[in-house]
Amino acid sequence: MASKNSSEIPEDTYVELIEATISAVYETGYADLGVRDIDAKFSKSRQLIHHYFDGKDELITELLVYLLSDEHEEIASSMDADPLTKLNAELDNILLSTYMDDDEFWKVFTVVYEIQAQAHHNAEHQRLLNELTDEYVAHLSEILQDGIDEGIFDDVNPQQIAMLINDLIAGAHIRKIHLGQDEAPGNARETIDQLIVSRLLVNSSTDTMSGI
Prior knowledge:
By secondary structure, the protein is mainly alpha-helical. The protein contains nine helices and no strands. The chain folds into two domains: 1-77, Orthogonal Bundle (Tetracycline Repressor, domain 2); 79-212, Tetracycline Repressor, domain 2 (Orthogonal Bundle), CATH 1.10.357. The protein has helices spanning 11-28, 35-39, 46-52, 56-76, 83-96, 102-117, 123-149, 158-179, 184-200. GO terms for molecular function: DNA binding.
């Protein structure tokens, strides 16, 4: 928890407030969001919100901190498997929402991209969003490096490939969320498999990516 008093909030109240913030941003959008919109989703009083947080921007900061903490936990508890299996599982999860309810998955990502669209107005939001991306790219890069070390993947620049994969994921997310292209994540998953993953494999019959 990031705000000056948030550690004093009971855990169940804190989680409810985070969920209320997610629902309010999802339904209202960030630009038009007010504390009243979050309060409408929150079972306790608006005074409690104002006691701990100085307006919607601080609540959004808290939400991003919560999501970053959740990402840390997910990465720390990721499956113990060979690098290729881990990479495929990560791609299935982030593009096909294989490990959580599909509606909830896209609700959270819709909120993240909604906040991202307004982040140029708030340096702290920019910092936290960049940290979310950097954490995920570092995780992918570590999987790729493990695959290189174990002789599964060709000797590529893992950071560069991880960033490329992340950019393709983000593009697919944006096309689905903002443009209604529901097929975009599945298409991106196939593209990443055909043009990146299959070419990473040592002794692949397709052209390798060893020059990257």
